[in-house]
Design goal:
The chain is α+β, with helices and mostly antiparallel strands and about 425 residues long. The chain has helices spanning about 10-30, 35-40, 90, 120-130, 145-165, 200-215, 260-270, 275, 285-295, 320-325, 345, 360, 375, 395-400; strands at about 50-55, 65-75, 80-85, 95, 115, 170-180, 185-190, 225-235, 240-255, 300-305, 310-315. The strands form three sheets. Strands 1, 2, 3, 6, 7, 8 and 9 form a seven-stranded antiparallel β-sheet that branches. Strands 4-5 form a two-stranded antiparallel sheet. It has a two-stranded antiparallel sheet with strand order 10-11. The radius of gyration is 24 Å and the shape is globular. The structure holds zinc ion. The site of zinc ion has 8 residues, from helix 3 and helix 4.
């Protein structure tokens, strides 16, 4: 084993310490700018793209599942931006203790804290709408409904249409290399689940399975895996032109890269989708508050239409708007900057998990697939880059907080909206 020395010592822990320190060095000196983050998105848009799926990191899957809301937000020039993809804390974060009316955690019959999904204002909005449906039609088939019931059904359908606008959508995320842009290193290809089985996953899986069967090899293996050709085409729907995948093919067995050093660097990179698809926020605003504003139609945005007057707009919140636009060095230092002793995270999990067994946790299975001990034991993604320069460097505002992939115009290249 490469982690064993000649005297049989296991160096894997020490190795991970060195890589952790290296990671922290680069994090503190070189926070990811918006461009750096976008370079981590693989969004097929050329007629032909070549992508290589990387072998999954320990404990992870080849194809991960995560949840994002796809909603309308406010945008520069007073416009509305449709299809903004926003991280859902309820489906992606570790569960949190359920609190009683006294503010104390509720315990189950075994004395373990009851856990519930982390609060998400957009999921809450979805539930509010669903609750407005008339339940009297439950179990009645449409063909057996009388005229009165059909009227109720039509109303229920309208409510449902509104409700699903706020629902968290399931996405798949694949970690790999864009062979047309190798300098960007490891990237993430995120695509939406398609209930009609006409999505990217439905095109990808048969190809990957066929490769496995015919080659008797893992498609993601660094030596015996395969690059994938992705052929894109224009597809029209509802008057909009979308880029859609017309075909995916396996190119055949090949090493990940001809240069073993490049290959090793890619394999060693431990960036995860959580480092890239960050929760959205705005200056002096937590991701939770940001979601609340999205739910209320007052999401803040970076107004950059006038090159000489770029600034933040907080609809209906002049106080926050002023604060956001008068930031000065260090005054708005974020809690993300607050460093703590290195043994704290491991010793003090955010959620007490000692008494919890899988059967006590319940059956909210719709979670991101990489939720595990690791995420439970440390705070969820707080690595969002921190706003720290003064506002005259206009780029900082949007570099650091507005990290939606859709801001680069890639909404045109999203999956077809059905
Ligand atoms: Zn949500």
């Amino acid at each position: 084993m490469e982690n064993q020395t000649q005297t049989g010592q296991d160096l894997s822990q020490l190795k991970s310490m060195f890589s952790d320190y290296q990671k922290k060095q680069t994090q503190s000196t070189n926070r990811k700018s918006r461009e750096d983050l976008l370079a981590k998105y693989f969004v097929p848009r050329k007629t032909k793209e070549i992508f290589r799926i990387l072998p999954p990191k320990a404990g992870k899957k080849h194809i991960e599942e995560a949840f994002f809301h796809v909603v309308t937000t406010n945008a520069a020039g007073g416009k509305k931006k449709h299809g903004t993809v926003i991280y859902c804390p309820a489906h992606n974060d570790p569960k949190v203790p359920k609190l009683g009316p006294d503010g104390k955690p509720l315990l189950d019959s075994n004395g373990a804290p009851m856990l519930v999904p982390a609060p998400c204002p957009l999921c809450a909005r979805n539930k509010e709408w669903l609750a407005k449906q008339d339940p009297s039609l439950k179990g009645i088939k449409k063909e057996n409904m009388n005229d009165m019931q059909l009227v109720v059904k039509a109303k229920n359908d309208e409510i449902y249409k509104e409700a699903i606008k706020w629902d968290a959508k399931k996405f798949y995320i694949v970690r790999g290399i864009d062979k047309g842009m190798e300098k960007d290193g490891v990237k993430f290809w995120r695509f939406k689940h398609n209930y009609k089985n006409q999505g990217t996953l439905d095109k990808l899986l048969p190809i990957l399975e066929d490769y496995m069967t015919s080659q008797q090899a893992d498609f993601s293996d660094a030596m015996t895996g395969t690059d994938l050709n992705i052929i894109m085409t224009d597809s029209e729907f509802n008057g909009h032109v979308y880029k859609a995948i017309s075909a995916i093919t396996a190119k055949g067995k090949s090493p990940l890269h001809a240069d073993p050093q490049v290959m090793q660097a890619w394999l060693d990179d431990d960036i995860s989708w959580r480092d890239v698809f960050l929760p959205k926020k705005a200056p002096n605003t937590t991701p939770y508050e940001f979601l609340e504003m999205v739910a209320g139609g007052t999401s803040p945005y970076w107004e950059d239409t006038d090159q000489t007057n770029k600034h933040w707009v907080f609809p209906g919140r002049p106080d926050l708007e002023e604060k956001a636009n008068t930031r000065t060095m260090n005054l708005d230092s974020d809690e993300d900057n607050f460093e703590q002793a290195s043994d704290l995270n491991e010793e003090l999990p955010r959620v007490t998990i000692s008494n919890i067994t899988p059967d006590k946790v319940g059956t909210f299975t719709d979670d991101a697939t990489d939720l595990g001990k690791e995420t439970l034991a440390s705070a969820p993604v707080t690595s969002a880059p921190v706003v720290e320069s003064s506002v005259d460097d206009n780029s900082d505002a949007d570099d650091n907080v507005d990290n939606s992939d859709m801001d680069d115009g890639s909404s045109d290249y999203d999956d077809l909206p059905f």
